[in-house]
Amino acid sequence: MLKTEGIKSVTYVGYTNNLKKRVALHNAGKAAKFTRGRKWTLIYKEKFKSKREAISREYYIKKNRSLRNNIKKKICENRHITTI
pTM score, two decimals? Predict the structure, then answer.
């Protein structure tokens, strides 16, 4: 899960087999259209043995807004970051 900084932070969920490269592409504006024009920070990751498992989990996190918000809240509390 990636998150933007600022007053209204936004999260993005996706899967990849090269995390460093994917975050760099998002920050360069060369990845998903939704992520362009924003500065992204990795806040949460999970590792899976198969692409199928990763896609299934990605879909679940994307559709479950309360889980997504709980992850964001927990991460921000651990880093002492305030979200609005």
Answer: 0.80
